[in-house]
Amino acid sequence: xxxxxxxxxxxxxxxxxxxxxxxxxxxxxxxxxxxxxxxxxxxxxxxxxxxxxxxxxxxxxxxxxxxxxxxxxxxxxxxxxxxxxxxxxxxxxxxxxxxxxxxxxxxxxxxxxxxxxxxxxxxxxxxxxxxxxxxxxxxxxxxxxxxxxxxxxxxxxxxxxxxxxxxxxxxxxxxxxxxxxxxxx
Length: 185
Prior knowledge:
Elements: H1 3-31, H2 38-48, H3 50-62, H4 68-98, H5 100-111, H6 116-122, H7 125-138, E1 142-145, E2 148-151, H8 155-169, H9 178-181
Helix pairs in contact: 1-2, 1-3, 1-4, 2-4, 3-4
């Protein structure tokens, strides 16, 4: 069997493994009634998935008569492709989990029909802010100290800065309001 075919098959299986691992961890976490961020669990599962992929790729290359340099290239290729696909998986999961339009459609479907006021009560600005702060707290990005929120981790902050700078570099204003644009990212 060709090495390319084996690597592609391994990468497909690694994504199936990621999906199954994510399902198992989510169900276990829900069963134990632990407060969690589903997206953070997806990210941790994706990171963990590197271990079996690395091991399987190493075993696969050890049986092949190729140079050490080629073996390293195959392993790096597998890790790069896996992590790109895992990154995409996390984004797709996040969109499905948090997209308000999808959630609104789901709520309307469950209820049969809803009044505008019912949706406004459920998805109002106050609720939206509370939900986002709860998620940031669950992901250990912010904490509450003396009634104020403070940054606990700068990971998402710096990702936001990079995205903002990238948009600026592309001449794309991701924050169209003047008051946000001038806050000095």
